[in-house]
Design brief:
five-stranded antiparallel β-sheet, about 45% strand
Length: about 180
């Protein structure tokens, strides 16, 4: 039978054995495969070249005092996205405001930029307010399902902002699904 003949594989007959090989289990120290189809796979660590499945970017903004009207925070750009077939981008953002006796309101928003870097439209908007002498951290999230550019940029923005607000810090994170 086939299993008993395995001990007789040599350079002269290996092609005959490998033409229809069935391997129950094997340890292979290093393997390079051009194409493969796996019905089920269990993987301890998966590393995909070039961020081929997902890509994540983060941007952080420092402190500022709002002069009035609006404040543009950090911008994050997710690059290398396919122009078709992408599953979208998930964006999370946070801002910390110090009231220091300041009372006011604003809208915390995530904006998508167009291909020229100009603000195109808001993906999400959250009304916020600060009162008394406290620090406030606000979070907002959005999903951009229509990823049509290879490079997609998102900005954290405060709008309708009462002048004098103190921004202690901000963060924005975006993760894009490429498949």
């Amino acid at each position: 039978d086939f299993v008993n003949r395995l001990s007789k594989i040599d350079a002269s007959n290996i092609s005959a054995f490998m033409a229809s090989a069935a391997i129950g289990s094997a340890y292979i120290g290093n393997l390079a495969v051009q194409n493969a189809h796996l019905a089920n796979a269990a993987v301890n660590t998966l590393q995909v070249a070039g961020g081929a499945v997902t890509t994540m970017k983060i941007a952080t903004g420092g402190g500022a005092t709002a002069a009035g009207g609006y404040w543009d925070g950090p911008t994050v750009t997710v690059t290398g996205m396919p122009t078709s077939g992408a599953t979208g981008v998930v964006i999370q953002a946070f801002v910390t405001l110090k009231s220091s006796g300041f009372n006011g309101t604003a809208y915390l928003e995530i904006w998508k930029k167009d291909q020229w870097g100009a603000l195109a439209y808001a993906l999400a908007s959250l009304p916020i307010s600060v009162v008394d002498d406290k620090n406030y951290t606000f979070g907002i999230g959005a999903i951009d399902p229509s990823v049509t550019l290879a490079s997609n940029s998102y900005t954290l923005r405060l709008t309708s902002l009462t002048p004098g607000a103190v921004i202690a810090g901000s963060h924005i994170v975006a993760t894009g699904g490429k498949r």
